[in-house]
Amino acid sequence: MTYDKRRYEPFAVAVDLAVFTVREGVLEVVLVERGEEPHRGRLALPGGFLRPRESAAEAARRELAEETGVAGGFRLEEVGAYSEPDRDPRMRVVSLAHTALVPRLPEPRAGTDAARALRLPYAEAGPLAFDHDRILADAHRHVGALLETTPAATAFCPPAFTLGELRRVYEAVWGTVLDPANFRRKVLGTPGFTVPAPGPARLTGGRGKPAALYHAGPATRLHPPLTHPEGPRS
Hints:
The chain is an alpha+beta fold. It has 4 helices and 9 strands, in the order ββββαβββαααββ. It has helices spanning about 55-70, 130-150, 165-175, 180-190; strands at about 10-25, 25-35, 45, 45-50, 75-80, 95-100, 115-120, 195, 215. Strand 1 and strand 2 (about 25-35) form a beta hairpin. The chain is elongated. The mean pLDDT is about 95.
């Protein structure tokens, strides 16, 4: 009965989204060019403010669809809360950041207050507006950890793939070159990660023998994890 909400300064809650895909061996992220102040004309992560009667997850999906035309069909994961007092010049804004690693991501299309929507290689995606460089880096670590503990990388390969094709997905997301023999040993030593595909091996263009083909296995978690060569990402 003693609580008085008027004693507290109001602030806004927003969502920001770092949505990644892998195309032709390159990790890409969806960005928008801001069409309004602050930071008009600068690149930023898609996002916006929560409405009074929606959850953060609902707002994230709505804002992504409104600003980029990318909608549905994939799981968004929380990255963290960003609450520095001066992160937005308009007012106090707390952002709840989300990320996703999405196969077959459609070409983004600008909408609402975004002047342009595009995909850029992760390595070229900065500097961004607000504190979005920090959010993007944190989201990158999150999706890197996702590949350590889940078979998500197989979604970016053909239905029947070589271990070399799978390795290149990891290299794109992790931003490092992996030893082929060590990678093969770890993948084949992880129960349910991959299963042999029937049919002949595939010529891969090198001088070696044709490469064996695999399908995604039944595992939903990798035990043991397929850790980054420099150690776990999170």
